[in-house]
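Lab manual, section 2.4: Encoding a predicted structure.

Procedure: take the sequence of the chain (160 residues), apply the prediction step described in section 2.3, and record the output as structure tokens. A sample record is shown.
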Amino acid sequence: MKILVLSDSHGDIEKIEEIIKIINSSKDIDMIIHLGDFAKDAIYIKNNISIEMKNILGNCDFLIDRVNEEEILNINDKKILLTHGHKYNIKDNLNNLYYRAKELNLDLILFGHIHKPINFLEENILLFNPGSISEPRDGSRNSYGIIRISDIIKGEIVEI
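Recorded output:
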């Protein structure tokens, strides 16, 4: 399974259109995940692709019905948490996310919020942030992520 992961698009229609072109030109992407900020961008993407898509709310998403703040997926026997991350105080450190992963027996946490890419494996738990396609921070560049799930999980950051 190959998943394109993005976060923190913040209404940047030019970057969103670029992502849609990437999705539509790829023959092997099985799912898209948008990790919040802006959920309306995720809805726009959903309306322009024919691939399964999941999205959650971020701290800048308001008045959006039928979208969860968090979601747990099971893909290829791997347990995955989708969260924007702001409720775990991730601007300070990733400890709360890591301990949540241990508590829920997760294999992967996908999160956004801090606008910088993270691809970090700790005790067989992958903590993965695709960065921001529109507003990168801390010297990072505009980016999204690719997650490959088979017997193992691999994450890749892709700069755009």
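Check your result against the sample. The chain has a mean pLDDT of 95.
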